[in-house]
Design brief:
Blueprint lengths: L5 E2 L2 E9 L3 E8 L4 E8 L1 H4 L2 H15 L9 E7 L2 E7 L3 E3 H8 L4 H19 L13 E4 L4 E3 L5 H8 L14 H4 L6 H17 L9 H10 L5 H4 L5 H10 L11 H20 L23 H27 L21 H51 L4 H12 L5 H30 L18 E5 L3 E6 L2 E6 L5 H14 L6 H17 L3 H14 L4 H7 L22
Antiparallel strand pairs: 1-2, 2-3, 3-4, 4-6, 5-6, 7-8, 8-9, 10-11, 11-12
Length: about 575
């Protein structure tokens, strides 16, 4: 059946793609005055009642998921036998097109996109959905918002219908071993396919290749995938480990959930960034110590004095022994007496002097050993401080984008390498503050999902107002809507005082429904955020409010503010509109 230039109330402008499910058109929606993408199903698929039933069910589920890394479905309809999906129109290229045209991606950029996709897969899995066909062609790289996953939940339907012989479905280069063996699968099959996609994105080729599909399937079932660093030695060991785990043949050996996968992907991204910047995250093991101590390049003044004293002590002992050997004319075992009888000899002055000299030498050697131990401890503390400083410089990049989860991960990795007590205490406080900041952001994401914010008074760092309803938020972006459409904003674009204002709004809004411990912790995380971003008065107010609500948090407040309670601010809080009950 021929397709006219209109489909429902949409005006079809041009064909932009053609695939297994049908044809994609760029179209115009006059109702909302915006361009959209419309995918029209192939007629042979649309004529199958069973497929249509499954298709409409899957499409409605996908449409209910609002996530910045999943292509948004606006509408599902039919017009004179043509079934179609209306989606957001994306600008950019698929990952496959980018790799084919420009070559493999660098490690940081590839990991960035995989983090986006993993977040999308996690969000969909919370709605009991798996993708079923993750591959570079189904990952779209937009000009502004990173990666977006295409055909979510629908590619599987198309592949099932396309193969009526009972064979397996999916893209053969990226499908999991259990799918090849037609074994029951779950979200871990998507993790495998994502690992194969990451491998392809970094190297320009999939993990396995063969002349025909049967040989390809046998390779996947019988052979181990090649190691990334054998192909690209410059890849970090962490990225290679993550890919190896994602490509494990047994689902039980892969990641047990998306949270752990995302944690490792972010850690790998951190190590790749550190490598590019020349920042050392890990202490490299040194060569074994030689049998004889190496000569010291620099010796402190106390050690020089100690060494001189020890040498003088040893010279004194030798002098005493030599003097006693030369001067002793009377036998030392008896002394003549007036009555002609001998008496038992006591300790001579020579023996006493020798014993005292030896004891002094021993004490001086202990002092010298202690000095050496203190010098070694000082050197270790200094090396650890330099390591901490390098991590803090790296974390500064993530602090600017409110990426607190990565900061927590960096400090956690570093903690295993710190051994001196002073630096352990220092790092523990850094990690505790970073954890409060991560809780702050996580709480805010949950608050937005629970009660969208529609006051329109949030601002960017450049001072622009964000007019619209803040409906959802993820780890990387916040989604707004207004009468003219929807838009997303990166966390990094928001001004710190706007996030303070938003959090304070939710603290007041939920004050009657939360127990004191939860409400107090909310204010404690707000105090940590305000202090980090130099909002002194708001930080003091939030800190004092925290232990007023939950007195047990007083010590946490003192730890956060260097052992003291911040004084009450002189300026009153900025008045805002009263909170509404959700």
């Amino acid at each position: 059946m021929a397709l006219s230039s209109k489909l429902g109330h949409f005006n079809l402008l041009e064909e932009i793609a053609h695939g297994g499910m049908g044809t994609v058109f760029r179209a115009f929606d006059p109702t909302l005055n915006r361009e959209v993408a419309i995918k029209v199903l192939r007629e042979e698929l649309a004529s199958d009642p069973k497929f249509l039933e499954d298709f409409l069910r899957e499409a409605r589920v996908v449409a209910s998921i609002s996530h910045p890394h999943i292509v948004q479905i606006y509408f599902v309809g039919d017009e004179t036998g043509h079934y179609y999906i209306v989606m957001e129109l994306l600008k950019g290229r698929t990952l496959r097109e980018i790799v084919e045209a420009d070559g493999p991606l660098d490690e940081e950029r590839a990991l960035d996109f995989m983090i986006d996709v993993a977040e999308a897969l996690r969000a969909a899995y919370k709605s009991q959905m798996i993708h079923g066909d993750i591959k570079p062609a189904n990952i779209f790289i937009t000009e502004d918002f990173g990666a977006k996953v295409l055909d979510f939940g629908l590619a599987k339907l198309a592949n099932i219908e396309a193969d009526t012989s009972g064979g397996v479905w999916g893209s053969p280069y990226y499908m999991s071993p259990e799918r090849v063996g037609q074994i029951a699968e779950d979200f871990r099959s998507d993790i495998y396919s994502l690992g194969a996609t990451l491998f392809d994105t970094l190297t320009g080729r999939p993990p396995f290749d063969a002349e025909d599909l049967q040989q390809l399937a046998l390779k996947r079932l019988q052979e181990k995938p090649p190691l990334l660093r054998e192909i690209l030695p410059e890849i970090t060991l962490k990225t290679e480990d993550v890919v190896n785990k994602m490509l494990s043949k047994s689902p039980l050996m892969r990641y047990r959930d998306y949270d752990h996968l995302l944690e490792d992907l972010r850690e790998a991204k951190t190590e790749a960034t550190a490598k590019r910047l020349g920042v050392q995250l890990h202490v490299e093991p040194g060569p074994p110590e030689p049998a004889a101590p190496p000569p010291q390049k620099q010796i402190s003044s106390p050690l020089i004095v100690t060494a001189i004293v020890v040498m003088l002590g040893i010279i004194g002992v030798l002098a005493v022994m030599l003097w006693g050997h030369r001067s002793g004319s009377t036998p030392s075992h008896q002394t003549p007496s007036g009555n002609g009888r001998s008496t038992s000899p006591g300790p001579s002055s020579e023996q006493t002097t020798r014993s005292n000299a030896l004891e002094n030498a021993r004490q001086l050697e202990i002092v010298r050993s202690n000095e050496l131990a203190r010098a070694k401890l000082h050197d270790q503390e200094e090396q650890e401080r330099q390591l901490i400083l390098s991590i803090e410089q790296t974390n500064g990049l993530f602090m600017a984008t409110y990426d607190f989860a990565t900061i927590v991960s960096n400090y956690t990795v570093l903690k295993s390498q710190i051994q001196t007590a002073t630096n352990i205490v220092f790092l523990n406080q850094k990690l505790k503050t970073a954890s409060l900041l991560a809780d702050f952001k996580s709480q805010l994401i949950g608050d937005i999902a629970r009660f969208p914010y529609d006051r329109g008074d949030l601002q960017t760092r450049q001072g622009s107002r964000l007019l619209g309803r803040l409906a959802t938020a993820t780890d990387t972006q916040l989604s707004f809507s207004n009468p003219y459409g929807a838009f997303t904003v990166n966390w990094a674009d928001l001004a710190p005082f706007s996030l303070n204002h938003l959090t304070f709004f939710y603290a007041q809004t939920f004050s009657q429904s939360e127990v004191p411990a939860v409400q107090g912790h909310r204010y404690l995380t707000l105090a940590a955020f305000d202090k980090q971003y130099n909002l002194a008065d708001p930080a003091a107010r939030a800190a004092r409010r925290a232990f007023e609500i939950a007195p047990d948090l007083r010590q946490d407040v003192q730890d956060l503010f260097g052992g003291r309670i911040p004084p009450a601010p002189r300026s009153p809080p900025r008045n805002g509109p009263p909170p509404r009950n959700p």
